[in-house]
Amino acid sequence: MSKFLKGTMILLIAGLFTRVLGFINRMVIARSIGGEGVGLYMMAFPTLMLVITITQLGLPVAISKCIAEAAAIGDRQKIKKILAVSLTITVSLSLIFTPGLILSAPYLTKTLFTDSRIYYPLVAISPIIPIVAVSAVLRGYFQGMQNMKPYAISQVLEQSVRIILIAVLTTAFLQYGIEYAAAGAMIASIVGELASLAYMFTMFKLRKKFKVRKKFFQAVSAGKETFYELMRVALPTTGSRFIGNISWFLEPIVVSHALAIAGLTAALATKEYGVLTGFALPLLMLPSFVTHSLSTALVPAISEATSQRNFYLVEHRLQQALRFALLAGGISVVILYLFAEPIMQMMYGSTNGTNLVKLMAPFFIFQYYQGPLQATLQALDLARAAMINSLLGAVVKLGLIFVLASKPDFGITGAALGIMTSTLLVTLLHFATVIKKIQFTIYVREYFKFIVGTVSTGLIVFWWKEHFLLHGSIFVKLIIGIILTTIIYLVFMLCTKLIKRADLAYIPIIKRFL
């Protein structure tokens, strides 16, 4: 098995565990502080992500790419320079922006947000910035070396610690008010991230084959060329993420003001936004652990192939990634569309947001497809093009959200339509950019078979669900329905040869069976 596929499988397994733990985490939060508390939590989070994006400066992707290229020729000295320069940049920026966020929190709360209670979770989460900054450098190092285990295990560890602490802290702080409970959830995130960093740092100390501290500042001062090399990838990547996070930062502001124009109170607008971003979107993003795993492994794999000028391998790896993303997205769309209501009831104890999940699910196939395309653009030194595509998508999203959500007939559904339109646009732009750069064959017949198989699965399960799945508890019906859907989908994909026997052999349990 190639390093790319091996790394992808490790990240897939860890990603599945992380997603499950993440949903347990959200279930605990939702049941502890309700939709309004989730709304406060989610409104503060985009601001944090914006600051973290600035602090990281797009370095994780740049580090991964540059280290993969250096490792391919065995240049350890360059790897050391990359780490020294990256740590200097991220630590310096975090020391500026952490106190900056704390000091600006009162201003942000009063001028930009419609709910003053956001101040408490905003301040509580600020200390996570330097922790994430150092973690990002270590993550980029392990990804560049195509050793995905430390990062994968650290993610599982972080979520496990977070869940335990959220259950304790939200309960402890709830007596003081919902805003304090939301702040408690943020504090749990800090400790979880700290545990993740501690594990990755330990693995780095054990696995590295050179001394980072020895002549550290000499490596930094001599790393001017390394700095420019990193920035060529990092700045456009930061631009893309900065645009995404600016958009995410502005999103709750635009939504809250648009809903206010539509006649909703501040508390109700917060609750509606909480249903969309805290309940519906996380459920729709569940399969993205597959595309995230593929994207993470794809950057160093394509960078390595490009440095060796093996363009056939570049296309082959991209085709593999897109096929896996499409297959995972197809089954996810069918399950989420058909079983949205029982899934929401089981997870959150409420069916609020079911209509949003059903509306958005078919379009989210483009979201799952987008990750590998963006990773390919970054690996091919086309991060600037990805940034421009993201900018266009962000402008379209915010514009549509304001226009549609401010109309009483649409409300929060207008925000969902804006998000979907933006996702579709960015994915198509990324795809157009990739096929301009590399030779890429579009297998129309394969896509047709995929559409037929996915739609047929949905129709068969819908008919069976309406006629036979009538009795029993919600949990039992949901499990039976998901198992049946998965079996029918796999049969269609195997019969059409979209999934091959060789693909199944990559899964450890099935590999032993075969």
Automatic annotation (TrEMBL):
UniProt topology in membrane: Multi-pass membrane protein
Subcellular location(s) of the protein: Cell membrane
Pfam families: Polysacc_synt
GO cellular component: plasma membrane
Listed InterPro entries: PG_synth_SpoVB (IPR024923), Poly_Biosynth_Transport (IPR050833), Polysacc_synth (IPR002797), Spore_V_B (IPR014249)
Predominant localisation class: membrane
Keyword Membrane: yes
Record keywords: Cell membrane, Membrane, Transmembrane, Transmembrane helix
Domain of life: Bacteria
CDD domains: MATE_SpoVB_like (cd13124)
Sequence intervals crossing the membrane: 38-61, 82-106, 118-138, 159-178, 184-204, 248-269, 275-300, 321-340, 410-435, 447-464, 470-492
Taxon lineage: Bacteria, Bacillati, Bacillota, Bacilli, Bacillales
Gene name of the encoded protein: spoVB
Protein name as it appears in the record: Stage V sporulation protein B
